[in-house]
Amino acid sequence: MTRQQAPQETLPAGASSPDPRPAPPPASRRPRGGQSAAWRAFLRRTPTRVFLPLLIMFVLVAAIGPFFVADPVATANPKLLPPSAEHPFGTDMLGRDYLARVVHGGQISLLVGFSVAVLCMTFGLIVGGLAGYYGGWIDTAMVKVAEFFQVLPGLVLALVAAALLGSNVLIITAILAITMWPGVGRIVRAEAMRISRLGYVESQKAAGFHGIRILVSDVIPNAMPPVLVATTMTVGRAILIESGLAYIGVGDPGNPSWGSLLNDAQSHMRDSWWLAFLPGACIFLVVLAVNMLGDALNDAFNPTIGRVK
Amino acid sequence: MKARLLHYGRLSLSSFLLFIVVVTVLFFLLELAPGDPVQALVGDVPLTDEFRDRIMAAYGLDKPVWERYLIYLGNVLRGDLGYSFATNAEPVLDIILSRAGNTLAIAVPSFLLSTLGGLVLGTIAARTRRRWLDGGISGFAVGLFSIPNFWFGMLLIMVFSINLGWLPTHGKSPYGQPGIHWEYMVLPIITMATTELAYKARIARSAVIESLGQDFIDTARSKGLPARRVLWRHALPNGLLPMVTVSGYSLGFILAGSVLVERVFGWPGMGLLFVDAIERKNNMLVLGITIVLTVTIIVVNIVTDVIYGIVDPRLRAGFAPKKEVTT
Predict the structure, then answer these.
(1) What is the pLDDT of residues B159-206, one digit of tens each?
(2) How far is B31 from chain A (nearest CA, A)?
C-alpha cells in the first residue's frame, strides 16, 4: 500500500526548473526555456482542469469549512438520520451532524497528507541532494536506508510504531514522514547525480564555487520537476496510509480523520450506507485528484515519455 | 556462474543484516513504548514492590537494556518469538502459524489474479491503436489505486452482500462450520487484488512500450515477422523482467494489506490477529507478526531475485549486471 508512485521516468536532460526565484548568476548558464512553457502545458491539460479545482475546493473546505458547519461533537440530533436538507450528510450513531464530522475529519486527513509530503520533500532534498552530489558514505547510507524502507511495507512499520508509541496526529505524521521520505530522496539522488555531471555544473566547480552553493542554486532547482511529481504522489499515499491506520483504530482519538469515521461506520453498513460511503468517497476523490495532477505534471515536464510507437 | 554465486552470497548476507536491523528497530520501539511492562504483563491490578521485583526477575526485566536486547535477538534467531500472556501464555509463533493458512488462502489467489490481470490489461493498453482504450485502461488504473482499499471492500459488501444478497458479509464459513467456503473468499480476494492489479497494469504498460521501442524489435520486424509474434515472443518476454521484480514486491504489499482487508471482512487470518493484538496491547504478538511478515517478505525477495536470474537470459549467461528496476 505504501508505494504507488508513478513509474519513475526521469526527465530528459533539457528539463528545467519551475522555480520562480530571481535569475541565477550568469556563471550558471542553466538550461532555460520550457520551464514556464511546461507549467502552461500542465495547466492546459484536461486532468488539471478537472482535478486542480477539485483539490482546491477540498483544501478550502478543510481550511474554512469548520467555521461554517455545526458542532461536530454535539449529540443533540436524532440518531442515524439519512441525508436530508437539514443534515446534508445525515447524522451518525450518536446523533452528531455528519457533515460537520466529515469536514473536520477532512482537515485532519489533509493536514497529515500535506505535512507528510512537505517533510518528505525537505528530507528528500537535503539527504538525496547531498548523496547524489557528493556520493561517498552519505550516498551508501542513504541507499541502504532506502532499501530498508522499500522492502518493508510502510503500513506495517507505521502500524507497529503508532501502536507502540501511541497515536496522535504528530506521532503519526512523523512516522509516515520517516517511512516515506526515501521515495522522494531516491529521485532527488538520481537527479542530483545526473545534473552534477552536466557542463554548467562542471564549469561552476571549475570556477571554484562551494559545493553547497552549487547544490542549492543549480542542482536542486533543476531537479525539482520529478521531485514535485513524487511529492504530489506522496500526499495521496500518506492520506491513504493514515486513513488505513485510523480505520484499524490506530488513529488520534481526539482528532478523528476520515479513516476514523470509516472505523465507526464499519458496524453500520447494513442500516446507514452514508456513514461508510461519504468519508471514503472524500478520500478517494482527494487521492485521485492528487494522483491525476501528479501524472499531468509528469507528462507536462516529460513530454517524450508516453507512447513511443 | 561464479559471479552469480557471489551475487547470491551477498544477497543472503544483506538480507540477514536487514532482518537483524528490523528486529533491533522493533526491540527499541518496544523499549520506547510508554507504559509499565510489568503492569502490562499482570494486567490492571495493584502491585506490591516485592511482587514487582519477582516478576522483573522472572522475565529478565531487571537486566540492562543491551543484555535483554541480545537475549531477545538470540531467541528470535532460534525461532522463539516469546509468549502471548493475554492468551494463556501460548507461544507467539504457534498462534501466528495457526492463522497463516487463512491469510495465504486469500493472498495467493489475489496475487495471481492481480499479476495476470495487470499483465493482460497493461499489454492491451500498450499495444492498442485505439487511444481511448489506452487512456481508459490507464485512467482506470489510476482510479483503482486511488481508492482506499478497505473502503472498496466496504462498498463491495454494501452492494453485493447487503443489497443484492449474493455473497456473505463476514468470516470464512457459516457460523460454527470449520474450513473455508468459497463464497466467503470472493470479495476479500477481489478487494486485495485491485490496488496491485492497477499498479501492475501501469508497470506492464510502460515496460511493453519501452520494450517495443528497442532495436531488437526493429530487427524482428525487418525480418518480416508477423506483428503478433513480435509482441508475444519478443516484446513481452523482455517486458516481463520488470514485472518479475514488481510481483515480488507486490506479494509483500498484499500481505501487509491483509491487515486492512481482513478487518473489513472479519477474515480470521494474520492481519485480523495483528489488529486484535494492537487493540489489546499484546506487544509480543505485535512484534511476532511483524517479524514473521518481514521474514516472509525477505524470503520472497530472494526468490524473486533467483527467478529474475533464471528468466533474464543475459544473467543466465553471466553477462550484464541486473538492471535497476524502480518501483
Answers:
(1) 888 878 788 878 777 777 777 777 788 889 999 999 889 888 888 888
(2) 9
Which pairs with CB-CB distance under 8 Å and at least 24 residues apart come from A27-36?
Answer: A27/A203, A27/A204, A27/A207, A27/A209, A28/A200, A28/A204, A28/A217, A28/A218, A29/A199, A29/A200, A29/A203, A30/A200, A30/A218, A30/A221, A30/A222, A31/A200, A31/A222
DSSP string, B180-237: --HHHHHHHHHHHHHHHHHHHHHHHHHHHHHHHTSHHHHHHHHTT--HHHIIIIIIHH
- The size of the A-B interface in CB pairs under 8 A is 153
d(CA B294, CA B192) in angstroms, rounded, equals 19
Query: Which amino acid, one-letter code, is at A87?
Result: H
pLDDT digits (tens, 9 = 90+) for A117-134: 999 999 999 988 888 888
Residue of B nearest to A10 (CA): B326
B contacts of A267 (beta carbons < 8 Å): none
Global confidence as pTM: 0.83
Task: Tell me which amino acid residue B158 is.
Answer: M
Mutate to test the interface with A, among B278, B284, B294, B302 (most CBs of A within 10 A): B278
**Among chain B residues, CA nearest to A147:** B18
Within 8 A of B159 by CB-CB distance, chain A residues are none
